[in-house]
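A reminder from the course coordinator: this example appears on the midterm review sheet, so study it carefully.

Given structure:
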């Protein structure tokens, strides 16, 4: 008697097709080919399909967990960058204020030292002729 492959049985071929489609949907074409080609000739097709589905679900869960972790890290880093940007903006405003104050103070000193700003120097020529 010739032993028949589990994949050539009527229900097994459909089950393997479903497993391959699920694998392709989750992991791309390479995984679909691997699932479609796995499973021996041991007539235990439903057990193999269940194992393949369990494996795919486990891997999908792992991927979702990794995506969630990456998303959390990205949000945390974005918040950190925002905080640093606000700090830099505050520092820039502080430096601008210091420059403005220094410029105003220097301008006031320069004006008070000017010979034209003194009240006695404008009349000094007149007083010398006496």
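Designed residues:
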């Amino acid at each position: 008697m010739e032993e028949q492959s589990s994949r050539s049985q009527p229900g097994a071929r459909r089950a393997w097709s479903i497993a391959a489609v699920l694998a392709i949907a989750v992991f791309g074409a390479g995984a679909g080919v691997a699932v479609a080609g796995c499973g021996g000739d041991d007539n235990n097709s439903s057990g193999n399909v269940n194992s393949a589905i369990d494996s795919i679900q486990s891997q999908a869960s792992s991927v979702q967990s990794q995506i969630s972790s990456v998303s959390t890290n990205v949000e945390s880093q974005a918040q950190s960058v925002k905080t640093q940007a606000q700090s830099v903006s505050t520092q820039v405003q502080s430096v601008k204020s210091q420059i403005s104050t220094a410029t105003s103070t220097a301008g006031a000193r320069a004006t008070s030292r000017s010979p034209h700003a003194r009240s006695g120097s404008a009349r000094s020529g007149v007083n010398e002729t006496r």
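The helical segments are 10-27, 29-37, 45-113, 124-128. The mean pLDDT is 74.
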